[in-house]
Amino acid sequence: MFDVPSSIYSTIGKNVIYFKQKTFLLPLCALFLYMPDLASASPRQENDGWEIYANVRFQYQICYPSRLLKPQGESDNSDGQRFLASDGGELAVFGWNNIAGFAHGKDELEASLSEAVEQAISALKGSEGEVTYKVIKKKWAVFSGDDGQKKEFYAKIIQRDDQFISFEITYPSSRHVEYQKVVESIAKCFLNDKGK
Predict the structure, then answer these.
(1) From which domain of life does this come (predicted)?
(2) Which bin fits 146, alpha (ψ -120 to 50), beta or left (φ > 0)?
(3) Largest CA distance in the chain
């Protein structure tokens, strides 16, 4: 055997300790490199691609799949926003005051929920489309159908006091299956300030 000077042992000992620390720290560092930075995680990471748009003027919020629908910026009068998809899909969410003169040129009356629904249906289905589903309750309504031009639609209107809030989503009929899941999620998370 060779006699190793004690000064070498002390150097080797320090290097072994240093190596052991590095060996322990390297996998730990690698782990942190592959983990998302939780402190700066975006809502997109936390919510699996879903984000929330909140409207201050009409006090409502809606969630939307940010990987599919891209926000176009709030309207000039702050009543809502449009979200567009590259496949031609569109989500529009907005509120309006139920003031005299809204429905069919009636100067003296406010619009009823039924009138607001019929006006929206007329705009969405056009002259060739049809409504395939419609439910009208005391303070809300939902309806869906197609425009006869290879697009489908789904809409919900909520009435509260002297305001309506609504969302309408249109999408290619060829993507019915994919959009059904999106529509269900949006409909569940569409809320006004009273959680309705």
Answers:
(1) Bacteria
(2) beta
(3) 110
Spell 64-78 as b/e; 16+ CB within 10 A means b. bbbebbeeeeeeeee
Checking if the pLDDT of 18 tops 70, the result is no
Give CA–CA dist 175/172, Å, rounded. 6
Which candidate, 104, 130, 120, places its Cα nearest to that of 165?
A: 120
Q: What is the DSSP letter of 61?
A: E
Question: Within 10 Å of residue 186's Cβ, how many Cβ atoms?
Answer: 23
Tokens standing for residue 182: 């999106």
The pair of structure tokens assigned to 1 is: 């055997």
Q: Give the sheet arrangement for strand 60-65, strand by strand.
A: 50-55, 60-65, 191-192
CA distance 17 to 11: 10
Task: Please tell me the distance from the alpha carbon of residue 143 to that of residue 107, in angstroms, as a whole number.
Answer: 27
**What is the identity of the amino acid at 156?**
K
State the pLDDT confidence band at 76, using cuts at 50, 70 and 90. very high
Structure tokens at 155: 């809409």
* pTM strictly above 0.85: no
Q: Looking at residue 147, what is its pLDDT?
A: 96
Instruction: Mention every residue, 6+ apart, whose C-beta is less than 8 A from residue 56.
Output: 78
Distance spanning both ends of the chain, measured CA to CA? 85
CB-CB contact of 114 with 171 (8 Å): no
